[in-house]
């Protein structure tokens, strides 16, 4: 069964550094998303992407965040200058219907 | 603004019995509801969904019930098995949102006791 894959599974970075989280969505899907879950808290929507542009973003998704679909298969989330509070599990998802398929997540630890 | 609420942070159920997980919502524009299951350090896995035009949807051991007037849905798992121990998230989406964005509850940790 096709699945969403995310790399790396765990990323440790120094505060202020840039990180890129990578995702390969399911190939025939049209909608792409990033969500995050801070330890012990709710899953939070960050951004949705459709037709090669951001379709919606949350308040969390500020100027430090960006997304890109550089080659038609990868979908990346970049955090320009990481903060301690960016430490969380980041989940990529894709969909073609109203059911979102999630990847295994990337645990980002900012130290 | 908690549009989707799961008021029980955890639930403990004996193996073989019924597990009932509850979810309430406030936004009357929600018209599609989903349940996801999540193991630690893994991504959420889709379990079952229901459209607002229905009041029940069944898939094997899992049944979701929707009460639109009460803005309440529940997930029934019968019989409960040890592998069902996980965090269960209720999520909702709005037909007016063409991006299919999901609004999530806080989750309920289900523990199945042998």
Question: Strands, helices and their partners?
Answer:
The complex is a heterodimer of chains A (111) and B (114).
Chain A: E1 5-7, E2 10-13, E3 19-24, E4 31-37, E5 43-50, E6 53-57, E7 65-68, E8 75-79, E9 88-95, E10 101-102, E11 106-110
Parallel strand pairs in A: 2-11
Antiparallel strand pairs in A: 1-3, 3-8, 4-5, 4-9, 5-6, 7-8, 9-10, 9-11
Chain B: E1 4-5, E2 10-14, E3 19-25, E4 30-38, E5 45-51, E6 56-59, E7 62-67, E8 72-77, E9 86-94, E10 103-104, E11 108-113
What do these coordinates show?
The complex is a heterodimer of chains A (111) and B (114). Chain A is built from no helices and eleven strands. Chain A has a single domain, classed as Immunoglobulin-like. Helix content of chain A is 0%, strand content 51%. Chain A is mostly beta strands and 111 residues long. In chain A, the strands form two sheets. In chain A, strands 2, 4, 5, 6, 9, 10 and 11 form a seven-stranded mixed sheet that branches. The N and C termini of chain B lie far apart (38 Å). Chain B has a single domain, classed as Immunoglobulins (Immunoglobulin-like, Sandwich). In chain B, strands 2, 4, 5, 9, 10 and 11 form a six-stranded mixed sheet that branches. In chain B, strands 1-3-8-7-6 form a five-stranded antiparallel sheet, with no helix packed on it. In chain B, 35% of the residues are buried. By secondary structure, chain B is an all-beta fold. In chain B, strand 9 and strand 10 form a beta hairpin. At the A-B interface, strand 5, strand 9 and strand 10 of A face strand 4, strand 5 and strand 10 of B.
Q: How many structural domains does the protein architecture of chain A include?
A: 1
As an assembly, this protein is: heterodimer
Which whole number gives the mean pLDDT of chain B? 93
Per CATH, the architecture of chain A is Sandwich
Distance between the termini of chain B: 38 Å
Q: Mean pLDDT of chain A, rounded to whole units?
A: 93
Structural class of chain A: mainly beta
Q: How many strand segments of chain A?
A: 11
Which CATH C-level class of chain A is it?
Mainly Beta
Low-confidence runs of chain A: none
Query: Number of helical runs of chain A?
Result: 0
- Number of E-type strands of chain B: 11
């Amino acid at each position: 069964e096709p699945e969403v894959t995310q790399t790396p599974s765990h990323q440790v970075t120094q505060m202020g550094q840039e990180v890129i989280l990578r995702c390969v969505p399911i190939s025939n899907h049209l909608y792409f998303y990033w969500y995050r879950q801070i330890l012990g808290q709710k899953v939070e929507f960050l951004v949705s992407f459709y037709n090669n542009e951001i379709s919606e973003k949350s308040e969390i998704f500020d100027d430090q965040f960006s997304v890109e679909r550089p080659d038609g298969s990868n979908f990346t989330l970049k955090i320009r200058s990481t903060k301690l509070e960016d430490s969380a599990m980041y989940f990529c998802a894709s969909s073609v219907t109203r059911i979102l398929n999630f990847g295994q997540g990337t645990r980002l630890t900012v130290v | 603004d908690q549009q989707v609420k799961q008021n029980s942070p955890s639930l403990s159920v004996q193996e073989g019995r019924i597990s009932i997980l509850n979810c309430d919502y406030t936004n009357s524009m929600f018209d599609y509801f989903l349940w996801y299951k999540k193991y630690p350090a893994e991504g959420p896995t889709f379990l079952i969904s229901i459209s607002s035009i229905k009041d029940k949807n069944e898939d094997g051991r899992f049944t979701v019930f929707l009460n639109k007037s009460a803005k309440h849905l529940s997930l029934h798992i019968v019989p409960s098995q040890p592998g069902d121990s996980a965090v269960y998230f209720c999520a909702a989406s709005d037909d007016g949102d063409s991006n299919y964005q999901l609004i999530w509850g806080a989750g309920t940790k289900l523990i199945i006791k042998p």
